[in-house]
Write a structure and sequence with these properties.
single chain; 840 residues; alpha+beta; Phenylalanyl-tRNA Synthetase, Chain B, domain 1; OB fold (Dihydrolipoamide Acetyltransferase, E2P); Phenylalanyl-tRNA Synthetase, Chain B, domain 3; 7-stranded mixed beta sheet; 5-stranded antiparallel beta sheet; 28% strand
């Protein structure tokens, strides 16, 4: 919001007119400063009078005027120290001899760094320039020079034009947060300045006096489809002015203020509506009444309706759009933008003035739906004071009559359906307890009344009714914030809060952090991917029949589902990195996935209306509708695990990298994970496995690992073999011991033995390994498969698996007999489970 200082000074006394001082005062009450705006004009600009004007046709078909212009009283030096009469070349023709104009003398600098100097042109030396509004930065009008009489001005020749036109004014710009919509007006900012400095505030709405209420103009309010149960219209006032001169010029003081406020001048009627909007915060719309069919209807749009808005674009309307219509159809998007069919033009004679208050959510949705932000919607979606529509309309009528002539008629309408603002209970000591500053009873009451609230004392509890222009004050803490803000934030002591004692991280949090540290130490890089995927991505590693969560308002219609697994997003990250030249990757992610149950109802139909809070039943229903969201741990490894070096061959990635990732994750979690051959969708046949955690009660499948199917790797532009793995991290942590201990360094001498077992060829080596581990008992420290032999000496259909065993006792040196006994126990259990026989 840009606030011209001269305008602000009409509503409050500025204790210091400097922009820095005004911004400091506003910052004190929480309005953040953004910038300072000034007119980029300097030098000797004066009022001149045309003494003569001789038309001179040129060879290019253009006619210029060679003028003699008095720029200072006769016999006196001009503002630049030169003669009182100057010869000036002018291409405009909207003036006559005797007119007073604005002259920029040599030495002046106009917007854009345009320096004025005496120069020869069209056969004459032009000693200055007669300026147009656009050349001075006062608008876009460049059809002719500024004729002061047309603006109602008759200053003395030689008068300095910069203060005359308000070009010495400045505007401070502040950032208005969504909860402070009232600050989108001079009225709101002036009130805040008064809070900050203690000066008196002069409300422009009260200065209007008692507004006249018109009647007899038909207005029908319909709202058959309110948004979330809220009526779309809270107030609606119309007035009619007849006999206006729509071609009248907007006066300099209004042009100057609108320009500094960042509003483009259009015409005197439109400029007046914008001026009152900036002044009061109440958006106003003006119609050419002769183009309106009978009366106005405020309703929701109907299917198939279209509207051409003032920006010239035709828009297809939605059933939720609140529109202003007449009997011919929609003529405006309520609270957003008017329609081109009823636009005020130079031919307008009768003006219909509309001032209304609309429901914020409805206007916000319409503006976003049509991608049509406007000055009006910016205010409506933050909340407009619903009680000032009549006063704002009266102010517009008064200004139109003053600037464009015409007569206010009795024709008009008035509608109001403003719900009563509920009172908020505020214990008198609530602010002191929450903020930590001692606020006295009288001070709290004074501050609340100062912001416009009605305060009723009820013992030690105040019944506070917020003012109509503060829809953001809905709870006790809002009032406490106002007390702290107006009483001065600097009173709040600057000390760091003492952290309350806590229980630290949960077991699950500790486990996730430990796993992340361990994987980082092992050379893996953690990344984060978007949880939004397509149906095809969700079906890469699982059945496409499994249910997924579909987003109601997806950012990308092609990726409108929430992920069931982490791997699809990781593959997208890998593709992006490989495309940028990072071909050797070992990336992982641990994040939530979304796995609804078949037939589960997601979301609830009934939502709280407006500012109402959800009931316990609604919260319970919402919680029951949420899908399971377990955390998963996934990895993608591609490229080379060892780069080619002199004397060393490159080692490309294969499925063993996925197995290594699984082992590292298990070590960090304190769980022994193994791979079991299995067919997994999306992985290479024969190079895929389930991730299994062995428990006393049986094996638990917690994920899968292997080599990515070549077709999928090609789809993601990944060359070579790609190792992938995904583990249900929550399930893994659930299997973890409460405390993960490091393996102690043993000092006793180990005993080593080899064991060869003959088993059927289709027996999984992992199953034999498990039997050896379980049979050997706690003396077995390490076991590894070192040979898989099939050939001479082994019967067809069988294989020989050789394991290297290492035994150790923590308290003594093992004897050969003890090691052999443990090995024989392993052989016995393998024979019992799998029919294994020792190879001799």
């Amino acid at each position: 919001m840009r606030v011209p200082l001269s305008w602000l000074a009409e509503q409050v006394h500025l204790t210091d007119r400097s922009t820095d001082a005004v911004l400091a005062a506003l910052v004190k009450v929480g309005l953040e400063e953004e910038d300072v705006h000034r007119f980029d004009v300097s030098g000797p600009l004066v009022v001149g009078q045309v003494l003569s004007a001789e038309p001179e046709p040129q060879s290019n078909g253009k006619t210029i005027n060679w003028c003699q212009v008095r720029v200072a009283p006769e016999g006196q030096l001009a503002a630049d120290g030169g003669a009182d009469v100057r010869g000036i070349v002018c291409g405009a023709h909207n003036f006559v001899v005797g007119d007073k104009v604005v002259v920029t003398l040599p030495g002046s600098v106009l917007p854009g760094g345009f320096a004025i100097a005496a120069r020869k042109t069209y056969g004459h030396v032009s000693d200055g320039m007669m300026a147009s509004a656009r050349e001075l930065g006062l608008g876009e009008d460049h059809n002719g020079i500024i004729v002061l009489a047309a603006l109602g001005l008759d200053p003395e020749v030689g008068t300095l034009a910069i203060p005359l036109l308000g070009l010495d004014d400045a505007a401070v710009e502040i950032n208005v947060t969504p909860d402070r919509g009232y600050a989108f007006s001079i009225r709101g900012v002036a009130r805040e300045y008064a809070h900050s400095t203690g000066v008196d505030f002069r409300d422009p709405v009260l200065a209007v006096g008692t507004p006249a209420l018109g009647s007899g103009f038909p207005v029908e309010i319909r709202d058959e489809a309110p948004i979330r149960g809220q009526a779309g219209v809270r107030s609606f006032v119309t007035r009619v002015v007849e006999g206006v001169d729509a071609k009248a010029a907007t006066p300099p003081w209004m042009l100057e203020r609108l320009t500094l406020a960042g509003i483009r001048s259009v015409s005197v009627i439109v400029d007046v509506t914008n001026y009152v909007m900036l002044e009061t915060g109440q958006p106003i719309h003006a119609y050419d009444l002769d183009t309106v069919d009978t009366g106005l209807i405020v309703r929701r749009a109907q299917a198939g309706e279209h509207l051409t808005t003032l920006d010239g674009k035709e828009r297809s309307l939605d059933a939720e759009d609140l529109v202003i219509a007449d009997h011919s159809g929609p003529i405006g998007l309520a609270g957003v933008m008017g329609g081109a069919a009823t636009e005020v033009s130079d031919a307008t004679n009768r003006v219909l003035v509309e001032a209304a208050a609309f429901e914020p959510v409805s206007i916000a949705r319409t503006a976003r739906r049509h991608k049509l932000p406007s000055e009006a919607s910016k205010r409506y979606e933050r909340g407009v004071d619903p009680t000032i529509a009549a006063a704002a309309a009266q102010r517009v009528v008064d200004l139109i009559i003053e600037l464009a002539g015409g007569t206010a008629t009795e024709l008009g309408s008035s509608y109001a359906d403003v719900p009563a603002t509920p009172a908020i209970q505020l214990p008198i000591d609530a602010a002191s307890k929450l903020v930590g500053v001692e606020y006295g009873r009288d001070e709290v009451i004074s501050i609340l009344r100062q912001i416009g609230a009605e305060v009723v004392e009820d013992g030690d509890v105040l019944q506070v009714t917020p003012p109509s222009w503060r829809p953001d004050l809905t709870e006790q803490v809002d009032l406490i914030e106002e007390v702290a803000r107006i009483a001065d934030y600097t009173r709040i002591p600057s000390r760091l809060p003492v952290a309350p004692p806590g229980r630290g991280y949960t077991t699950a949090q500790q486990s996730r952090r430990r796993i992340a540290r361990h994987l980082a130490g092992a050379g893996y890089t953690e990344v984060f991917s978007y949880p939004f995927v397509s149906a095809a991505q969700n079906a890469l590693f699982e059945s496409a029949e499994l249910p997924s969560v579909e987003l109601a308002n997806a950012l990308d219609a092609k990726e409108a589902l929430l992920r069931r697994l982490v791997l699809p997003g990781l593959l997208t990250v890998a593709r992006r990195n490989v495309a940028r030249g990072l071909t050797d990757l070992a990336i992982y992610e641990q994040e939530a996935v979304f796995r609804p149950q078949t037939g589960q109802q997601l979301g609830i139909d009934e939502l709280p209306v407006g500012s109402a809070r959800p009931t316990p039943q609604q919260l319970a229903a919402l919680g029951a509708s949420l899908p399971d969201q377990p955390r998963h741990l996934a990895a993608v490894i591609t490229g080379q695990t060892l780069a080619k070096q002199p004397g060393v061959h490159a080692v490309p990635v294969d499925w063993q990298e996925a197995a290594q990732f699984v082992v590292q994750a298990g070590l960090a979690a304190g769980v022994s994970l193994t791979l079991r051959s299995a067919s997994v969708t999306g992985l290479h046949p024969g190079r895929s496995a389930e991730v299994v955690a062995e428990r006393a009660e049986g094996a638990v499948v917690v994920g899968f690992a292997g080599e990515l199917h070549p077709d999928i790797a090609h789809e993601y532009a990944l060359t070579g073999r790609v190792a992938v793995a995904e583990i249900d991290l929550d399930a893994l942590i659930a299997l973890s011991p409460e405390e993960v201990k490091a393996t102690p360094v043993h000092t006793q001498t180990p005993a080593t033995q080899d064991l060869s077992l003959v088993v059927p060829a289709d027996t999984a080596a992992a199953a034999v390994l498990r039997a050896v581990i379980d049979g050997a008992g706690e003396l077995l420290e390490h076991v590894a498969l070192v040979d898989d032999y099939r050939g001479e000496g082994i019967e067809p259909g069988f294989k020989s698996l050789t394991f290297a065993l290492r035994f150790r006792a923590l308290d003594r040196t093992l004897t050969a007999a003890e090691a052999s006994e443990a090995r024989d126990a392993a052989v016995a259990l393998a024979a019992e489970r799998l029919g294994a026989t020792p190879r001799v």
